[in-house]
Design goal:
By secondary structure, the chain is α/β, with parallel strands linked by helices. Helix content is 26%, strand content 23%. The longest helix is centred in the N-terminal third of the chain and has 16 residues. The chain starts with 10 loop residues before the first helix and ends with a helix.
Length: 556
C-alpha cells in the first residue's frame, strides 16, 4: 500500500508506517468490536474515532463487529443503538460481523486445539481454579484434569455443548503454562457453560467462548491488520498472539496496539457503573442527558462535530491521563456558536410591569436570528406592557459592580427600550414578585434616541406573547473526582445538583421548534429541545452554559 509523505500524527501511525514500509502489511484494516451490553459512552467514542479514523487516513477500511459472547447482559436494542451512534459520528463500516455468527467455527477451532493437545476440559470448581491459579509472586498449580486424554476431552467438550452439565461444573481451558509470570497465560478459560438465551441464537448454544479466545481469532479470520485497543489489554497481548498462532488460521497475524483510554473529570466511564445508574433509577435511562453515553449527549444537544474536536484535542497517547470536563464544554460551545440561532428565554422569571406603557399597545421588533450570519434571517418579537426578566437581574440592595436592574436605575432591554425601576412589590414572605418600571419611549433600538448609553442590557420576553417552558440544567453527575475507583460506593459520591428543573418562558418561535433543535438563549447558554416536550409545555435541556472557563485558562 502506498502512502503519501507525511508526518505521523501519533505513535499508532508510526507503527503502521513501519509495518507498511517493511512489507508486513500492504493495506490497513481495523475493527471496532463493542460488546452489546450497553450504549456507547464518550470513552468508547475515542476508540471509535481511533479505529475508523486510522483506517480512513490510510485509505483502508474498518469493520464493525459485535463481540456478543455473553448472553446475560446483551440484547438487540444495544446493537441498534451502537449502530446509530457510529453513524451519528459520521462513520460507515466496511463489514458487519457478530461473534455469534462465528460460534460454529470457534467450536471447530477449539476441537482442533484439543486434538493437538493445546486444550482440556477442567472439572475444578471456580473457587478451586482461583486458588490454584497462583499469585503474581507464586506460580499456579496444574489442574488434576490437565492430562486427560484427547478422546475424553473431545467427548466432554461435546457433552458441554449438548447441555449435559450445569453452569460452573466444567470449562475448557488452554494448556499453556501454569508457572508463567503473566497470570493470564496460566491455562486461561476458552469456553464456559451459560444457559441464558442469546439475543440472536436463542438456546442453540449453552457454551460460549471467552473474549480472550474469540476476539483474536475473529480478528485473524476477518483479516484485521491492526487491532487497536485500550491500554488495559496490553497484558492480554501475549495471550492474543498465542491464540492466533496456535489456531493456525492465518499466515498474516494481526498486530495488537494499545493506547490510553479516555478519562474525564467527574465523569463515570465504566459501563458497569453506568448500568447501575440506569438499573437503580438514579437516571431516567441510558439517554438521560447527564449520562456520558452518546445517546445521552445527543439528547442534550451535543453536535457530533464537537465530539470529534474534543477527541482530536485529547489526542492518542500511551499513558492514561484525566482530561478536564471543561475542554469538552469548550468544544461544544465552539461548534454551536456559528450554527445555533439566538432566542430569548427566561428561566427564573420575575414580572415587570411598564406603568407608562399603554395597556393596548404592542410594538413589533425585528430581531436577527444570528448576529454574525444574516443569511439565517430575522424574526418578529413583540413588546408589551408586561414582561418577564430573570430574577437574578434585579437586586433590591445592589452589590458593587452590579449593573443590572435596581431601584431608581436604568437598563436596556435587548433589542428594545430603556426602562427604569420605580418601585417593586413583595409577597407575604418578603420575596420580590413584581417590578414597577417606566420606559423611555424614545429609546427604541434602531431609532434616533437609541444612542443614549446605559451600562446594563437584559434579555426579556413579552408576558402576553410567550410560551411556558421547562428548563433542565445539568452539572457533572459526580460530586468529586475519581468516583469510579474510590473506596466508597460511587453512588455515595453523586452530585445532588446534577439536575435542576426550572419553569419559565421563551419566545414562541423557539417553543414551536422541532425536538432536537438547538438555540442560544441569550445570556443563559445553549439549549436543546427535549423529546419530553408536549404541545402545552416545551422542555429544553441546557447543553452548556455560555461561560467558558477552559478557554480562559488556555489563554494564560
Amino acid at each position: 500500500m502506498e502512502t503519501t509523505e507525511r508526518k505521523p500524527a501519533n505513535f499508532i501511525e508510526e507503527i503502521i508506517d513501519q509495518d507498511l514500509a517493511s512489507g508486513r502489511f500492504d493495506h490497513v484494516r481495523t475493527r471496532f468490536p463493542p460488546e452489546p451490553n450497553g450504549f456507547l459512552h464518550i470513552g468508547h467514542c475515542k476508540a471509535v474515532c481511533v479505529d475508523f479514523g486510522t483506517a480512513q487516513k490510510y485509505g483502508g477500511v474498518c469493520n464493525l463487529r459485535f463481540d456478543d459472547t455473553n448472553p446475560t447482559k446483551e440484547n438487540a436494542a444495544f446493537v441498534e443503538g451502537i449502530e446509530r451512534d457510529i453513524k451519528w459520528l459520521g462513520y460507515e463500516w466496511a463489514e458487519l460481523h457478530f461473534a455469534s455468527d462465528f460460534f460454529p467455527r470457534l467450536y471447530e477451532i477449539a476441537q482442533d486445539m484439543i486434538r493437538r493437545g493445546l486444550a482440556y476440559v477442567d472439572d475444578q470448581t471456580p473457587e478451586e481454579m482461583r486458588k490454584n491459579r497462583g499469585t503474581l509472586t507464586e506460580p499456579g498449580v496444574n489442574s488434576p484434569w490437565r492430562d486427560r486424554s484427547v478422546e475424553e476431552n473431545l467427548d466432554l467438550f461435546e457433552r458441554m455443548k449438548n447441555g449435559e452439565f450445569e453452569e460452573g461444573t466444567r470449562v475448557l481451558r488452554a494448556k499453556i503454562d501454569m508457572a508463567s509470570p503473566n497470570v493470564l497465560m496460566r491455562d486461561p478459560t476458552m469456553y464456559r457453560i451459560n444457559r441464558h438465551p442469546h439475543h440472536r441464537t436463542g438456546t442453540e448454544w449453552c457454551i460460549y467462548p471467552m473474549y480472550d479466545f474469540q476476539h483474536p481469532l475473529q480478528d485473524a479470520v476477518e483479516g484485521i491488520t491492526h487491532s487497536l485497543c485500550s491500554l488495559e489489554y496490553e497484558i492480554h497481548r501475549p495471550l492474543y498472539d498465542w491464540f492466533v498462532e496456535k489456531a493456525n488460521i492465518t499466515d498474516q497475524p494481526p498486530r495488537q496496539i494499545e493506547f490510553a483510554r479516555l478519562n474525564i473529570e467527574r465523569t463515570v466511564m465504566s459501563k458497569r457503573l453506568l448500568r447501575r445508574l440506569v438499573e437503580e433509577h438514579v437516571v431516567s435511562g441510558w439517554d438521560d442527558p447527564r449520562m456520558p453515553t452518546l445517546v445521552g449527549m445527543r439528547r442534550r444537544g451535543y453536535p457530533a462535530s464537537a465530539v470529534h474536536d474534543f477527541i482530536d484535542r485529547v489526542g492518542v497517547a500511551k499513558a492514561d491521563s484525566t482530561v478536564e470536563a471543561n475542554l469538552l464544554d469548550h468544544c461544544v460551545r465552539e461548534a454551536l456558536a456559528d450554527h445555533a440561532p439566538r432566542a430569548m428565554a427566561v428561566i427564573d422569571p420575575l414580572k415587570v410591569t411598564l406603568i407608562n406603557w399603554p395597556e393596548d399597545k404592542t410594538d413589533v421588533l425585528t430581531v436577527e436570528n444570528h448576529p454574525d450570519h444574516p443569511e439565517m434571517g430575522a424574526r418578529e418579537v413583540t413588546f408589551g406592557r408586561t414582561l418577564w426578566i430573570e430574577r437574578e437581574d434585579f437586586m433590591e440592595e445592589p452589590v458593587k459592580k452590579f449593573f443590572r436592574l435596581v431601584p431608581g436605575k436604568e437598563v436596556r432591554l435587548k433589542g428594545a427600550y430603556i426602562i427604569k425601576c420605580e418601585d417593586f412589590v413583595k409577597d407575604e414572605a418578603g420575596n420580590v414578585v413584581e417590578l414597577k418600571c417606566t420606559v423611555d419611549m424614545d429609546s427604541r433600538s434602531g431609532s434616533e434616541g437609541a444612542n443614549r448609553k446605559v451600562k446594563g442590557t437584559l434579555h426579556w420576553v413579552n408576558a402576553g406573547d410567550c410560551a411556558p417552558c421547562e428548563y433542565r440544567l445539568y452539572e457533572p453527575i459526580l460530586a468529586e473526582d475519581d468516583g469510579e475507583n474510590a473506596d466508597v460506593d460511587f453512588l455515595e459520591r453523586l452530585n445532588p445538583n446534577s439536575l435542576t428543573v426550572k419553569n419559565g418562558y421563551c419566545e414562541k418561535y423557539a417553543a414551536d421548534s422541532d425536538v432536537g433543535s438547538t438555540f442560544q438563549f441569550l445570556r443563559m447558554g445553549y439549549f436543546c429541545k427535549d423529546k419530553d416536550s408536549t404541545q402545552e409545555l416545551p422542555v429544553f435541556n441546557r447543553t452548556v452554559a455560555l461561560k467558558d472557563s477552559w478557554a480562559k485558562e488556555a489563554k494564560k
